[in-house]
Amino acid sequence: MLVCYSVLACESLWDLPCTIMGSPLGHFTWDKYLKETCSVPAPVHCFKQSYTPPSNEFKISMKLEAQDPRNTTSTCIATVVGLTGARLRLRLDGSDNKNDFWRLVDSAEIQPIGNCEKNGGMLQPPLVSLNQDSNKIHILQLVDMSFKSLLIYGFSFSLIFFSQFIC
Fold first, then answer.
1. Which residue, of 6, 16, 68, 132, has the greatest Cβ tally within 10 A?
2. Where along the chain do its domains lie?
3. Are strands 63-68 and 150-157 parallel, antiparallel or unpaired?
4. Helix (H) or strand (E) holding 116
5. Average pLDDT of the segment spanning 123-136
């Protein structure tokens, strides 16, 4: 008789019988695991990863535009703070390392500087900095012929919009 164990019903994976690993000694086999848990493997056609990962030509401290992971309708300025293979560790300018996040180099959620403006958007401060007094964003909106230029000034963030810029 086949007994199926629900992983959701267990308090932890360690509560499952040792035979879930395929044998009492813990030797894992997919066939036994799938049978014992009444599971269905994801078919190969579901996976879209490239067999050769994209090359990572980014360097630490490079700037780019990225979707705010806490507010995906906002595009923010981000800094590359780490690299691992085809992954980038990003920090939104104005947030701390507790809010770092990872993206693949070919993610649609990252774009080169200027992409947001080119497509009629406006850069936003990260959601985390809107509620933090210690993080201040200085965003200078420069007036040019098209009233679209946006200059990010400095590394501290608090929203300051200027209707004109006088040198």
1. 68
2. 7-46, 63-117, 120-157
3. unpaired
4. helix 115-118
5. 63
DSSP at 11: S
Are the C-beta atoms of 104 and 54 separated by less than 8 Å?
Answer: yes
The pLDDT value given to residue 62:
98
Chain centroid to CA 40: 29
Please give the single-letter amino acid code of residue 90: L
Mean pLDDT of 144-149: 34
| Per-residue pLDDT at 50 | 82
Angstrom distance (rounded) from CA 34 to CA 30: 6
Fold that domain 63-117 belongs to in CATH: SH3 type barrels. (2.30.30)
How many other CB atoms sit within 10 Å of the CB of residue 75?
22
**Which range is least confidently modeled, 93-102, 107-116, 124-133, 135-144?**
135-144
pLDDT at 22: 44
Q: Report how far residue 157's alpha carbon sits from residue 135's, in angstroms, rounded to the nearest whole number.
A: 5
